[in-house]
Amino acid sequence: MSISNSRSRFLSHRYSLPECAGHLRRLGQLSCSACAVECTEIVERHKGPVMLITPDMQNALRRLNEIQQFTDQRVMTLYDLETIPYDGFSPHQDISSSRLSRLYHLPNIVHGVIILPVNTLMQLVCPHEFLHGYALVLKTGQRLSRNKLRSQLEQTGYYSVAQVMEHGEFAPWGALFDLYPIGSEEPYLIDFFDDEINSLNTFEVDRQRTLSEVDAINLLPAHEFPIDKNDIELFRSQWREQFDVRRYPEYIYLQASKGTCPAGFEYWQPLFFNQPLPSMFSYLPANTLIVNKSNLEKAATRFWQDISLRYQSGRIDPMRPLLAPDTLWLRVDALFIELKAWPRMALETVDLAAQAGNINLGYYALPNLAVQDQNKLPLNNLHRFVADFDGSVIFSLESEVRREQLQDLLGRIKLGYLADPAPRSGTADRPLYDDGRRVRIRFLR
């Protein structure tokens, strides 16, 4: 936690948001959770989406949880693949599903914040035209044969199985068709009447029990690359231009020629397209504001060094020849060239020098408020802080049990409080003390 000396931030804005490409605003003295507080203000003020770049995934998840406590705007994250560069393993299908769904909807985001680590941002992605061109929509009453649906699913990377369990799978059962679309939270049961879709229902994977009926299903491709016959032929042609062809069954080239996707196949993605892979910046709406945490360049450089080391050690394997790193990831210099094309804000923990574009916000870390079990007054530090602090104190808890425990602790030091089951706007200005001080308990989102 952190606090600020100034209460004027609730009455007027202490800084303006950059609006033009290349404009950079730096905010300093943002200790602890102050970054999440200021990110929330930026999201609320900016008339468009915000992309928050963090040094790593752990930091991204922390900011996701924190920002959700302060805003009702849409807050989401774009996960990394959870594989190391040039890995011989593919990401879990649920991760791929979430990633493809986020990419598909990213160009249409109107407001809110998307949080991602810099290594995810540096990874090049499939062309926008491919993702939208291979997307399918199934509707009740639509004329579509089961054989044609099966063919379309196989061409977009879905697998035929005996029982649907994971994203990217389908199972035909006569007139019934089980399908777990990429990007969907639940699988669907498609009921055909001859060559017409009679009904669409969600169902539970474990119990195979129908849940609810829907009118339409959006289908995304199962991979960030196409695997129909023409695209496999393009892959083969471009492979031969770069690598030798070996006649071993486990060779990547021969496996791909048969239409199978071996583990780690994502690192040959560029061979399925005629043009170089675009960056994720190509998916952003034009009015996006970029916000990044401190040490962005250091984190990006470290990730690029990891990529280079993996490439140098792995390129000697004749069974898995590797593509050059810059065909799969943005170089560090290319990343910052891309960043200059957008309005950007940098959040720093240190004091910034007094110059144009720099503003220090005066946050400082909380004192030690831990319960001192060995003292006669174990909550004395908290009691003294609340008595001296001229502002609101908010406790965010996970459950009713935690709230009851906290209520018992506050009762021992005779602190009045407001348990907050209602939205923040309904209680934010209700004083609990005659002098206007407020203590509030609310639940984590």
CATH architecture of the largest domain: 3-Layer(aba) Sandwich
Structural class by SSE content: alpha/beta
Low-confidence stretches: 5-11, 422-437
So how many helices? 12
Estimated share of beta-strand residues: 15-25%
Q: Strand order across the biggest sheet?
A: 4-5-3-14-15-2-16
Distance between the termini: 17 Å
Shape: globular
Mean model confidence by pLDDT: 83
Output the CATH topology of the largest domain.
Answer: Rossmann fold
Largest sheet: 7 strands, parallel
- The level of helicity is 25-40%
Description:
This protein is an alpha/beta fold. It has 3 domains: 2-128 and 275-360, Rossmann fold, CATH 3.40.50.11180; 136-219, Penicillin-binding protein 1b domain (Penicillin-binding protein 1b fold, 2-Layer Sandwich), CATH 3.30.2060.10; 368-443, Rossmann fold (3-Layer(aba) Sandwich). The chain is 28% helix and 21% strand. It is built from 12 helices and 20 strands. A 7-stranded parallel beta sheet has the order 4-5-3-14-15-2-16. Strands 7-8-9-10-11-12 form a 6-stranded mixed beta sheet, covered by helices on one side. It has a 3-stranded parallel beta sheet with strand order 18-20-19. The longest helix has 19 residues, at 296-314.
